[in-house]
Design goal:
Order of helices and strands of chain A: EEEHEEHHHHHHHHHH
Strand content of chain A: 15-25%
Largest interface: A-F, 43 and 43 residues
Distance between the termini of chain A: 26 Å
Oligomer: homohexamer
Number of domains of chain A: 2
Keywords (chains A, B, C, D, E, F): Exonuclease, Hydrolase, Nuclease
Organism (chains A, B, C, D, E, F): Paenisporosarcina cavernae
Largest sheet of chain A: 5 strands, mixed, barrel
Number of strands of chain A: 5
Radius of gyration of chain A: 22 Å
Protein name (chains A, B, C, D, E, F): 3'-5' exoribonuclease YhaM
GO molecular function, one term (chains A, B, C, D, E, F): nucleic acid binding
InterPro entries (chains A, B, C, D, E, F): HD/PDEase_dom (IPR003607), HD_domain (IPR006674), NA-bd_OB-fold (IPR012340), NA-bd_OB_tRNA (IPR004365), YhaM_exoribonuc/phosphodiest (IPR050798)
């Protein structure tokens, strides 16, 4: 069955979908309706449910799975789903939440195994032990959390997907620039965003926690490294160096790093993070853009629209 | 005896002075000389020592105490000390380093006692215990460190002087705006700069530590609060709230706070810190400025020069 | 009777309300309607009036008082009033405009008396006479105008409320920092915003005057001080000093002050103004925010949302 | 006799010169010397006076006229005057200060006459009377003051030179864009910088007055217009409009205008001011630049260096 | 017949109009409608066409000419056209597209002739030949293209209208500042925006080309000058100088010029361009603004609203 | 023989050195001297030549080779060479300029061969032909020019060294992100900086050309691509795409790119350029920095100082 976001205007819908958001409203004439954001693995689409009742509001809430019949139509430059029928999934239909959310292409276990390989390559015992300790502490969440609530790697297992991709790029850089310290760089890549498992609320319908808002993933991670060092009784300069890599990985004070990178690997970590995030956004947008056309505007890329050359088959 | 910075041009010098900085150089004709920054409690002054030898370099190093004879003269808009005689202090003369460095006006023990009074006013046990714990851990350093290497409160016991002054202002604000939470605000004031005791190298001839450069006093303090909470087994939201106050007290990302203030007392803490630092700089500069004239330019105040009205007796 | 903004969704309305704004429009189907902003002392609420006629447009204009029956409902994250009946107030019902607009908590006469106390404390005759002269000239307006059209102290007598609160803070600062010149600071506080009585259109339904747009309250006040000095034949430097305090109180050129503060009291005036405005905004927003939640975003506070700690009872 | 700045390296000097600045200093070996900035109508040049005595310091002060013998040499990319003999002018030699300061090319009386022509073209009586009144009040100073202490039109009568040049450009613009109001634009041009006669200290050796620093020429002029209107009992909107033109002529808050231009002629006034100032700076720098080379860097032009094409004879 | 934008609310419409834009949509109740932007020489107006069919969509597309009956009404602060009848123009009615689009006031042939006069005044053969060559190559488009898609000179023949107006201003400046090189300045003015004929899609319903987006008119023109020089075998510095004028005419890197002006005429070209564009925008906005009122906000003028004085008849 | 920059303080010098810069000056006592910057392959060092004559000035000019005897001493935190003897190289000594300038580690022929390999991997004939054509046209210069006058790759063959390093990184990225178009990216990397061969004056003692200042290497290269396409009669979109890559490779308007990257490979090109330049600067600075210390400040890296961890052996 084709994913909901891959259907063209006029195509019929008969899909199980997950309610991602549900917002109540009234029309200008005063009749109540709901705006639903419905999703499956292919992404999400908006739909309006007219003349709603209290019963509707009770049934159709975020994280509910529904069966929807209808049709795709076009509204203000975007596809919408025109609902003709809707009902909650019956228990015996057995659809799982995980069947309906976008996720990394590779299984999370494979990603974790790839990540582990990089641990084996580390030579500095302090760095390796610290990194392994923190990985273990949050292993389950690291394997399922997204790397962000939107923009890039914002899907189930997006965090580990991002980290593994960065590690591969880090490895290539270490080969091209042998002065780079592999241990510091790999550990920096692995740790830099793990604070997200406390900054964000979970793998699905992700929002910011209070702690995420007030402290942020950078600060959270710096204190985690401190705590791990104490638990492992590690005292070398490695602790401070890894804290600095995490601290500075946004590259500039304006972007939330209280210190700019001041260690060679910290500078490179910032670039690796940036390249991987941007390639993720660019690929997603350009996949939907035919050759010879411009993509939709992407806010986190300075609101730029990218062109796909005609000869880029 | 008049302090070295209070002497006028032409006045004779016969003072014990502390060498704050000593820089070797050669004249354009190739003869070696040294530039000394010499200080006593009143502040510091520059002096040149001509035709220096290896022996001079051995004797006249930073933190050495010397007896200097000479005269004040004027050079490029500043006073200088023209050295006529110089020798190291003899042991039996018994001058202490502490006799020659500027310090807070009140004794540090008095300042600490004043600070303690604010602890007693706290009602929230978690906040009080956390604050007391950290205060105790670093008590000696808190009582002697400056608040900065230059600009404001950059003298012995400058840190506690700044904190006590801020606490008094905080108390006045709590009386005027009763919605402010006294416990949060007092604790925030006490803790906000304690990270300086690890960021800076000591009470005298202060410079930045490696950790100070790579992590900074804000991050250092946030991890200290975490550690204290663990040691005291405190788990309430107070821990995170105090971490946020420390984290955000510079007010903006560009100024080194990874999060802007998002709690009422955090916003006010930023203002109190600012006012107290600026009053300290303004008072110091305007004390030297006669009515009807402009002060020297102050770099941390956007390089402004301040006017002292003629009628401000 | 409960204020209109304190009613919950579903509660019935039968209130006298003041029309603050009235905007005509047509639905997408072409039928005319009006959007009304209705207010009482507790604040304001939006309402739609459907299928309106010329008669409606004639009756329901800004500053008209109406009696409205209806119900509170929820629309796009905000409460709205669903109008079931509406009619103009009858003369014999005797509701006054002043019964329906938010105002300072203390009566304006009390505020003026508090302000006068600070005049008595002044020692410099020139400063005192100048300040008193201008106060007298605009006394009525100073007692009723808001300090702004929105954001902070934007209610009847908001201007004097703001000034008196600032004076109290100024007094506390003078006690903590005795180098501050009380006369200059008090006069600066009293005068700094009086230009608003020409910049703004009035105490109710306040907008900007042409002169307010083209010259602004800062410039207006500087010329007023000039005029007052001429009328009182005062020639001392005090005139220029007070002009500078008014001129520089926004703190920076980008914020509309053609000169940055260059007098100690000018610098402090800027801080006092800021703290009092921010406390006013914060208190208003956090009063509506339950412990453990974030407030609505506040545009003039860099669009920040503030957190109210769970333990902040 | 050739002007001092037009002599080449190695050429002999025997000139009457005005001391513009005189700074005392000591060499690294402790012998006193003075740095003199000496000028005649062609501009200024630096000179060192070695082994100076108290007598020298008494004789060679700013605004003293001296007779200097010596030679031009080259030092760090600039010409200097090597002094071989120096003595104060004798009274009977009768050199005037005005013989030795750069000035506008046209006599100040001619410039004033040209300016007056524009007054005659004004049709609006209020605008004409206001402008004439202020012109009269400061006529002497307007005819001799520079327009700035450095950068552009920084010579005797530079202010009126600048204004007349702007009026001619204003006239050309009124012809090309007939919607421009001639009265407003001419008056705005004439008045915009007259505040300089109180902001600056005088026609020669010009510095900022206290009032110039604390209020600035823009604010000074706005209050002058107010005062003039009162004296002439003019009440129309013209007063406010002219105040707005003066207020906004720097174009942006960051550049010291508390309001951006909001009247058509105010916007154009800002451009005319800019073009005339820049042409003045460009012409001065490029006159010294041979075809095929770059000029010296000009700080007020974003530190740019301008190229003179080889074919620009 | 009065132009569509000059009719008041309530006035009847019976006009031939050009469809400038046509957007399909559905109401919240699901019935399809179209939003049309309709224009004649006086400007454009919005209209809604309710309950549309496929037939409507086929007939009413951009660049179609229609006859519309209806009435002007007011909606959200703007006039709209309420359509009562609409039909495509019949061939025999013979209305031309050019009858319904705004255009420069003077005929394009007159503008071209005026422009040619400036070519005759040029003395430098290289500059003249280069300019003439490029003018000829794109002559037709230069005579019909707008200078921009919106904001200023955004009408048929707007480009040449802008250039001719700038040339006149350039001439006035050359007379006032005789150091300006007429040849360089005139050629710079003529060439600076010709790249628009490749950056933009055409004279009507103008949008950006792919090349316009990826390279921009500045770069396009610089390569055109290179090509022209090669075709004419011109090798002098004039080529580079003209390229620099085009390159730098936006004045700053942030505004799309890879180099700031570094030639006297380049600096002035930037000012002339700015003044002419702003006068065009100001005149258009203020024509619609009665004396004593503020214009609509203009986004490219920092979103400012301009005041028209009451005495500006 | 040890390179001049690798000698310690006090070590004797007897080296052939190249004069990189020679500046004449006079001491404060009026005796002439010269400041020489002398270099060999290891880098450069400053030296003073006292009491110089016209003969000295004639002999010791930039690009002259000299034999110098003397000693290394320390002056203001930097090493200097104290000259005891100096004479011009005798012809028979046969030292070549190329023996005394720093250069890429690999021979330029090897670098060119490595670069050629990437041409072979290209599949798109248009892109390959265009790139090959331009490479050929400037082959000699590409093999010897530096990539910049200072900061990074500022040595002989620095340009091709930078390009080859970037190509290797580009290849690694194409493997990790298969959506990248290899042809576009490789061609973009090869072409992006070739404009430097016209922007800069040569391989040694490099400065900016007039054309380099007025047009810049970006614009120069865009017109070169245009010309190449015409000569090869290539008309596809590839021409514009490569022009866009060159145009946008500085990433932002503020940094001299008139267009931001709008093609996936353009975005990545900007990152590759940045990483390779920064690794070059970081490696050079950190090679001189012992573990546990901070490097000198690097201006093009926001003036940051980088820390080398103690455990980074």
């Amino acid at each position: 069955m084709k994913g909901i976001t891959t259907l063209g205007v006029g195509e019929a819908v008969d899909h199980f979908l997950l309610i991602k958001q549900a917002t109540k409203a009234v029309t200008t004439q005063g009749s109540p309706f709901m705006t639903l954001i419905l999703q499956d693995k292919s992404g999400d689409i908006e739909a309006k449910l007219w003349d709603t009742t209290d019963e509707h509001e009770r049934l159709y809430h975020p994280e509910a799975i529904v069966r929807v019949g209808g049709e795709i139509h076009h509204y203000r430059g975007k596809n919408q789903l025109r609902i003709k029928s809707i009902r909650p999934m019956k228990e015996e239909e057995g659809i799982q939440l995980s069947d309906l959310v976008p996720a990394a292409e590779k299984p999370k276990e494979v990603l974790m195994e790839e990540l582990q390989q990089f641990l084996f390559e580390m030579q500095n015992a302090n760095i390796q032990r610290l990194t392994r300790h923190i990985l273990k502490k949050y292993q389950t969440k690291i394997m399922t959390y997204p790397a962000a609530t939107k923009n890039h790697h914002d899907y189930v297992s997006g965090l580990i997907d991002h980290v593994v991709s960065m590690l591969k790029l880090g490895k290539a850089l270490c080969e091209l620039y042998p002065t780079l310290n592999r241990d510091i760089l790999y550990a920096g890549i692995i740790l830099h965003d793990i604070g997200k498992v406390r900054e964000l609320s979970g793998a699905i319908a992700t929002s910011y926690t209070v702690e995420g808002n007030l402290l942020g993933h950078i600060t959270i991670m710096v204190t985690e490294i401190d705590k791990a060092a104490e638990e492992l009784q590690i005292e070398g300069e490695e602790v401070m160096v890894l804290q600095h890599l995490v601290l500075s990985h946004h590259g500039k004070e304006e972007w939330g790093s209280p210190k700019k990178p001041m260690i060679r690997e910290a500078e490179i970590l910032h670039y690796i993070d940036n390249i991987d995030a941007k390639m993720n956004m660019l690929n997603r947008a350009l996949k939907k853009t035919p050759p010879g056309e411009f993509s939709e505007r992407m806010f986190p890329l300075d609101n730029r629209s990218f062109y796909r050359p005609t000869f880029d088959e």
